[in-house]
Amino acid sequence: MKLNIGVIFGGNSTEHEISIISAVQAINNMDKDKYNVIPIYLSKDSKLYYSEDYKKVENFKNLSSAMKMGTEVLLTKKNGELVLIKDSFPFKVIKNIDVIFPILHGYNTEDGTIAGYLEMLGVPYCESDIYASAIGQDKILQKMVLKESGVRVCEYRYFYESDYLKDQEKVLANVMELPFPLIIKPARQGSSVGIGVAHNKEELIAKIEEALEYDEKILVEEVVVDLKELNISVLGDNSSYELSDIEEVYGKDEILSYQDKYMSGAKGASKGMASTGRKIPADIDKNIQKEMEDMALKAAKALNISGVVRIDFMLDKKSNKLYLNELNIIPGSLAFYLWKSKNVEYKELLDRVINIGIKKFQNKNKKLSSFETNVLESFNGTKGVKK
C-alpha cells in the first residue's frame, strides 16, 4: 500500500520562490510506486492550498493565479488521522496524509516554525526537529554551538537593531575591532538575502542598514579574502550519518550571491541550487577533505540534525585554514546533486529522508511526554500555595 506524502512548500519567507522550485523538483522525483504525493502550497499570507496542478513549476509564475488554481485547506487531525480538509463549509476531507515532508527555506518556515506546528499535531514529518531547525536558521546561535563543539568558525560580532539605534558608535566600535573587509548578514535569513561586504566605515553603515531591512539581529564577521567555497551534504540521524562528495562553488560576485546561487546559467525557469556554478569533486588535498568531513560530522551531531542537510565551508587558500560557514537545515534542491557521484539518485535520497522521518517519529513515541496523574484534581484555588 502506498504512503500519502504531503509536501509543504512556499511560506512567508524571502525564499518563497526558491522553496517552490525545490519542492516541485522533489515532488517529480519521488517514487510513484511507493508514494502518493500531495502538494500543499503555503502562500505568503500563510494560507494552505492544495492542487494537483502544483506539481508543475510553471503554474507558479503568477502567485495570485496559483492560489486561485487550488482549494484552500486546513491541515488537522480527525479521528486520530492527519487530513487535509476544505477550509469552508462543508468541511470535507480532501486527502488523508501519512507523512509530511516540509520543503521550506528561510525565516518563518525552515526555522522550526513548521516543525513546531507538526510536533503539536503529533504527526510524522521529515527533516530536522524544532531545536536543530531554530539553531540552524540563526547564524549567531549556530556559531555559538559550533564553537562550543570545537568546530572552527570565523571571528564575529553581533548586535540587535535596538542596540544600534541606541548607540550606533558603540556598536560600530565593537564591530570594527575586526579587520576590514567585513561581511554583514541578517542573522536569520538565507540564500544570501541582505548580505553585503564592507571595506570601510561608510560602507559598513550602509550594509548594516540594508541588512536591518531583513532582520533585527545582525551578524558581522571577517571576510576570508583568498577564498575557496566548499560544500558537503550530510544524510541521516544521530545514530548514523553519511557524507556526500565535496563541491567547490563559485560565482561572479564578491560573495556567492542570490543571483549566483539561483539564476546563473538558467535559461527560463531556475533550477534552484542546481543552477550554481560548481566543481564536483572539489580540487582539494586529502588532509583538507578529511578535516572538512570530520567538522561536518561534528556539526551534524552537535545540532542533532536529521534528514539531509548541506554544510558550507570556507577555505582560506593563503593560510590553508578551513572554517565552517553555516548549516542549511533544508537545503536548496535538497542538495541532491551532491549525492550523484555516491550513486545515490534523487529518488533514493528522497526515499531515505522519508524513512528517517518515520523512524524519528516512532522513536519519539517511545518516550514519555506526559503523566497520567492530574495535579489539578486536588487544586483548590490559592490554598496551600507557598508564599
Secondary structure elements and pairings:
Elements lengths: L2 E8 L5 H12 L7 E8 L5 E3 L12 H7 L1 E8 L2 E6 L6 E5 L1 E4 L10 H9 L8 H8 L1 H10 L7 E5 H6 L1 H8 L6 E5 L9 E3 L2 H11 L5 E6 L4 E11 L2 E11 L7 H5 L14 E3 L6 H18 L3 E10 L4 E8 L17 H20 L22
Parallel strand pairs: 1-2, 1-7
Antiparallel strand pairs: 2-3, 3-4, 4-5, 5-6, 8-11, 9-10, 9-11, 12-13, 12-15, 13-14, 15-16
Walkthrough of the structure:
By secondary structure, this protein is an alpha+beta fold. The protein has three domains: 3-125, Rossmann fold (3-Layer(aba) Sandwich), CATH 3.40.50.20; 146-150 and 225-360, ATP-grasp fold, B domain (D-amino Acid Aminotransferase, Chain A, domain 1, 2-Layer Sandwich); 155-222, Dna Ligase, domain 1, CATH 3.30.1490. 29% of the residues lie in helices and 27% in strands. It has eleven helices and 16 strands. The protein has helices at 16-27, 63-69, 113-121, 130-137, 139-148, 161-166, 168-175, 201-211, 258-262, 286-303, 346-365, and strands at 3-10, 35-42, 48-50, 71-78, 81-86, 93-97, 99-102, 156-160, 182-186, 196-198, 217-222, 227-237, 240-250, 277-279, 307-316, 321-328. The strands form three sheets. Strands 6-5-4-3-2-1-7 form a seven-stranded mixed β-sheet, with helices on both faces. The relative contact order is 0.13.
